[in-house]
Amino acid sequence: MSSATTKTISLLLLIIIGYLFRKKIKNKDQREGIKTLILSLALPATIFIALLQIDFKSDLIIIPILSLGFNIVMHILVDKLPLRPVFGIPVNQYRVLIMLIPSLAPGLSCFPFIMEYSGQGPLAMAALADVGNKIFVLIISYTIAMKWYFEANKDSMPEEGNKVKDLLFSLLNEPVNLVIVTAIIMLSMGLSYSAFPEFIRLSIDRLSLMMTPLVLLFIGLSMRLTWDQVRTIFSFLFFRSGIAFLISGLLLFFFPVTDIPTMLLIVVFPQSACSFWPYAHMASVAQLESKVEGKPTSRTFDLDFAMNVLACSMPFSVILILAIYASGNFFTSTSNVFICAGILLTLAVLVVLLSSKAIAVYKSNAAAMKITPQVENTENAT
């Protein structure tokens, strides 16, 4: 068994362990404590290290631009296509799909295989492509989340003149965004991660090491899967994967590449699992909603459903990426990539047909859509 496969199995095992420990950690406050550690310490440390280790060169700017283009195209497709009424999905759950489906998490689902099968060169290109993805999941996604928050909670909407001010304040009030601003300032001054004394770097490194196990355990703890949810989530994952294959095929067609590792990189990178970072923004919105006083307020996002999407996305992407690399040079042929795109999009359509509006895949629970005195957090509204 290759080291990449071994590492992947160990990551999936952490999700299973978290799922098995649901009965041990079923108290809302205990789970909130784990989420706070992730969002306030582990995640900011990981982002800070990643940003300060970027070795960006102007002649390679096309790589992150293409990655960001994929995020934007996928966002537009999920947002604009009339899929919500077909499935009968509540608005707050469909917003979750719009946030998560365009995002990528190559660090957990893609980088180990690139390193194992292709080596350091393609891995460096993948890390550079992730810069464009980070712009989307860290900045654009947060802006979208706050826009929806104000739309769903009109009483909390600021005056027209204060919208920009309040948005900037909300941005800077989050630990994740604070470290992004700090990293950007340091990079603009020519400072890198090595500018810190070693004892500070060691502390940040140890905080970052908590990120992966805590996130995967938290995903397992938060899973509340039903067959109807699995069916609908996987239809969107098939759709996402089919569009990713289609975009990869177009890139291979218009930008002929003869280097096999690079060709495979173009195919596998968009197949990465959904990112956890948009969930961080959704959790921030949920915290704002929990502080709203007065009459019940509509929940912008369903955090339980978001966890289920993340839980399904990772094994789906890992299996697909492993199959791509295990197939040899099959996916270096543009026609084969387009064929796979067609197959996956067909599967997505078949699931849509099986999950027509008449079946009512999701039965809207009023508790999931409103804050009541008995329900303080979206995670209890399942």
From TrEMBL:
Protein's UniProt keywords contain Transport: yes
Tagged with keyword Zinc: no
PANTHER family: AUXIN EFFLUX CARRIER FAMILY PROTEIN, TRANSPORTER AUXIN EFFLUX CARRIER EC FAMILY
Official protein name in the record: AEC family transporter
Organism: Ohtaekwangia kribbensis
Residue spans crossing the bilayer: 6-22, 34-54, 60-78, 94-115, 135-150, 171-195, 207-225, 237-257, 263-284, 305-328, 334-354
Record's keyword terms, sorted: Membrane, Transmembrane, Transmembrane helix, Transport
Organism phylogeny: Bacteria, Pseudomonadati, Bacteroidota, Cytophagia, Cytophagales
Top-rank lineage group of the source organism: Bacteria
